[in-house]
UniProtKB/TrEMBL annotation:
Keywords (A to Z) from UniProt: Glycosyltransferase, Transferase
Record-linked Pfam families: Glyco_transf_9
Entry-linked Gene3D superfamilies: Glycogen Phosphorylase B (3.40.50.2000)
Entry protein name: Glycosyltransferase family 9 protein
Family matches, as CDD domains: GT9_LPS_heptosyltransferase
Lineage: Bacteria, Pseudomonadati, Pseudomonadota, Gammaproteobacteria, Oceanospirillales
Superkingdom: Bacteria
SUPFAM superfamilies xref list: UDP-Glycosyltransferase/glycogen phosphorylase (SSF53756)
């Protein structure tokens, strides 16, 4: 009988998107387990759209009142999970799994929360020795081994597969076949160091000058970031680059389907960058040089030849995004766009 597994990744959107390769591993095993995820309300819609998830359970969060926490425990206990996989461990979730009497509970061996788990995997993520999504895949594979499930192969991008017709429709909304559709997301969601609006404008102008074919420029915005996006459109216009705001989407899933039509997304290390990575859209990410936030650690999970990353050079302050060589970045991005144009039907 296939096991019933609960996976927890209950923090930000970007973190949850980097869990999709691990979820794909679980659902690719034989016999195929039933996979539920425990996520906060703001990532629940993405979790429901994930092809590797059977059921979504909403986590009310650590600040929820006692009745809400009790309801969560009752719900988890009633589902009689065979295993708990916590990708980012906290004492509250460890205690939840223990009290729900889930027999196999696996998590990274970090902090005192590990006391609540039956299997602890040493990873030392703060050293940033491999991508975050690979750390998650390692945990998923460790769980499969302990459940005696077989994984014939590791799933490959795209981890968010869309029907070709849906992708083509999204692309037609952004650019004609002879052009490359480029989306810039200048916001950070308040969690990531990012380029300034002026830097994004100069970068785009330089890329436009280096590319021989036409580019369709779009600027996207998250909730509360509309003014920043409008400012970038104005700056681009002043530099002679025609750009438009990406039409407002009705939901984060609808926004993801818009991104699926892009040839390239340029952004900081934030949710939209990792959504694009799961869609296997080419990405150009701008990262700080902080050890726990390096381009390797927060690498997107698209194909390697669709992935560009830029950060301050050695010797610069790790948050000094002005130290990034934008001319060099523009050349790499232009080369990516030229290569991508040859893949259009």
């Amino acid at each position: 009988m296939a096991p019933n597994v609960l996976v927890v990744r209950n923090d930000k959107i970007g973190d949850f998107m980097l869990a999709w390769p691990a979820l794909a591993c679980l659902k690719s095993a034989l016999p195929c387990p039933r996979v539920s995820v425990l996520v906060p309300a703001y990532t629940a819609e993405l979790a429901r759209a994930c092809p590797w998830v059977d059921e979504v359970i909403i986590d009310p969060g650590p600040k929820a009142d006692t009745p809400a926490q009790a309801a969560l425990l009752a719900s988890v206990k009633a589902k009689r999970f065979d295993a708990l996989l916590t990708l980012f461990s906290t004492p509250r979730i460890g205690w939840l799994g223990f009290r729900a009497r889930i027999p196999l509970r696996l998590a990274p061996a970090t902090k005192w929360a590990q006391l609540f788990y039956t299997v602890r995997i040493t990873q030392r993520r703060s050293r940033s020795e491999k991508p975050e999504y690979q750390y998650n895949v390692d945990l998923a594979c460790a769980l499969l081994e302990r459940l005696s499930l077989k994984l014939a192969y590791l799933p490959a991008p795209p981890f968010w597969p869309l029907a070709p017709a849906a992708r083509e429709s999204a692309r037609q909304a952004l650019a004609d076949p002879q052009s490359s559709a480029v989306v810039i997301h200048p916001g950070s969601g308040g969690s990531a160091v990012n380029l300034a609006i002026e830097q994004y404008a100069r970068l785009a102008a330089d890329v436009a000058q280096r590319c021989e074919h036409s580019l369709a420029w779009w600027v996207s915005a998250g909730p509360g970031e509309e003014a920043k996006a409008d400012a970038l459109v104005d700056d681009l216009t002043a530099l002679g680059v025609e750009a438009r705001r990406l039409p407002p989407s009705t939901s984060v899933t609808a926004f993801a389907h818009q991104l699926a039509g892009a040839d390239l997304l340029i952004a900081g290390s934030t949710g939209p960058l990792h959504i694009a990575g799961c869609l296997n859209v080419a990405t150009a990410g701008f990262y700080p040089a902080k050890r726990s936030a390096t381009p390797l650690r927060w690498q997107t999970c698209n194909d390697a030849d669709k992935r560009l990353a830029f950060s301050p050079p050695a010797g610069a302050a790790h948050h000094d995004m002005t130290a990034i060589d934008l001319a060099a970045a523009a050349e790499e991005i232009s080369a990516q766009l030229r290569a991508g144009l040859t893949t259009h039907p």
